[in-house]
Amino acid sequence: MRSAGTLAVVGATGQVGTVMLRILEERNIPFDHLRLFASSRSAGSTILCGQHSVQVEDVETADLAGVDHALFSIGATASQRYAPRFVSAGAVVIDNSSAYRMDPEVPLVVPEVNPGDAMNRPLGIIANPNCTTMIAMPPLAVIDRLFGLERVIASTYQAASGAGKAGVAELDEQLQRPDLVKLTFDGASVTFGPPQKFPTVLAGNVIPVAGELHGGNTSEEEKFINESRKILGLADLKVHATCVRVPVFTGHSIAIVAECHGQPEVQALVDALEHQPGCKVVELPTPLASAGVDSVLVGRIRLDRSSPKGIAFFVAGDNLRKGAALNAVQILELLLG
User: Fold this and answer.
1) The domain defined by 6-128+325-336 carries CATH number 3.40.50.620
2) Residues near 2 by beta carbon (within 8 Å), at least 6 away in sequence
3) What does the alpha-carbon distance between residue 76 and residue 259 come to, in Å, rounded to a whole number?
4) Known catalytic residues?
5) Is 144 exposed, middle or buried (0-12, 13-18, 19+ CB in 10 A)?
6) How far apart are CA 175 and CA 76, in angstroms?
7) 158 near 252, Cβ under 8 Å?
8) How far apart are CA 28 and CA 23, in angstroms?
9) Burial of 105 (0-12, 13-18, 19+ CB in 10 A)
10) pLDDT for 298
């Protein structure tokens, strides 16, 4: 693997940026220089990455000359503002936001699924999928290869960390602050303090809305539908998703039913998944078991008895790791050969 030259992490002080730095160290990504960028609020602080102590620069005012590769995790609006600046300065940008995912001139890449797409990047930008979409892609790609995908029905169980640090803090406060809990014994209901990040209380609850409502669907559901088609190269794939927020700190899970063109076989799928990079077949895939794990965990594989060509499974993955930071670093590894 060749050196990444001058490598930038943009959004280095954020939730995903912190994980990116840890993974760069774990995977021994070679680089000559490391530059860290964030907003003016964090500029001037110092971050230790392995043996490198690096001062955070203000992304708005910094001189970007000399940056070769940039890993972005700063949100869609900021990516639209700053990614073109890094490209103009000579960098290849790997962006974790939703800003460019559906741009036809920007590849949307999961290295275990469509690595070749990363080499065709006319805008100098490669997009990372949404964390929920990402977790579903490796097993769905195997099903498409074996039996041909016709339809996907997905019900997600998304952790609070998918809504950022504020989501984690809100769930933690609801769980840890007994003075915010009011017990009523007519039905044993529990009332927590008022929510801020989520539309209703998450602790002790599930919320059948993740993201913003866009007509009948939410933004998370639209991402899953549209990104799945683009990554798998199946423009006409029928996809339905219901995205649900659950009181879990980290780790997204998805219950999926896939309808196929051919007759699916459970053992053939299990055998293929055991040899598929990025997948691990387990008896009980849970978000807790997936925490800190590179692969997505796949289990509960069985035929769908309601459909002659349906197969069902449950998949769990670390939404901050494989769902975001790790995938971005793996794309960088593709570029470095």
Assistant:
1) no
2) 30, 336, 337
3) 33
4) 131, 252
5) buried
6) 30
7) yes
8) 8
9) exposed
10) 98
Cα–Cα distance for residue pair 181/174, rounded to 1 Å: 8
- pTM higher than the cut 0.85: yes
**φ, ψ at 296 (rounded to 5°):** -85, 145
Specify the pLDDT at position 178.
Answer: 52
Which H or E element spans position 24? helix 15-26
| Strand pairing category for 69-72 and 92-95 | parallel
CATH 3.30.360.10-classified regions of the chain = 132-159+206-319
Q: Which residues make Cβ contacts (< 8 Å) with residue 294, sequence separation at least 6?
A: 278, 321, 322, 326
Tokens for 294, please give them: 């590179």
Q: Are 98 and 116 in contact (CB under 8 A)?
A: no
Q: Which amino acid is at 297?
A: L
* Each residue's pLDDT tens digit, 213-267: 988 999 999 999 999 999 999 999 999 999 999 999 999 999 999 999 999 999 9
With a CB cutoff of 8 Å and minimum separation 6, the contacts of 178 are none
- Do the Cβ atoms of 207 and 244 come closer than 8 Å? yes
Q: What residue spans in the chain does CATH classification 3.40.50.720 cover?
A: 6-128+325-336
- Are 129 and 232 in contact by the 8 Å Cβ rule? The answer is no
Tokens 């504020």: give the residue. 166
pLDDT of residue 51: 79
Task: List, as one string, the DSSP characters of 51-85.
Answer: TEEEEEEETTT---TT--EEEE-S-HHHHHHHHHH
40, β-bridge pairs: none
pLDDT of amino acid 285: 98
The dihedral formed by the CA atoms of 239, 242, 244 and 249, expressed in degrees to the nearest 10: -10
Contact between residue 298 and residue 279 where contact means Cβ atoms under 8 Å apart: yes
Q: Position of tokens 């290849």? A: 92
Class of 132-159+206-319 per CATH? alpha beta
- Please tell me the distance from the alpha carbon of residue 48 to that of residue 289, in angstroms, as a whole number: 28
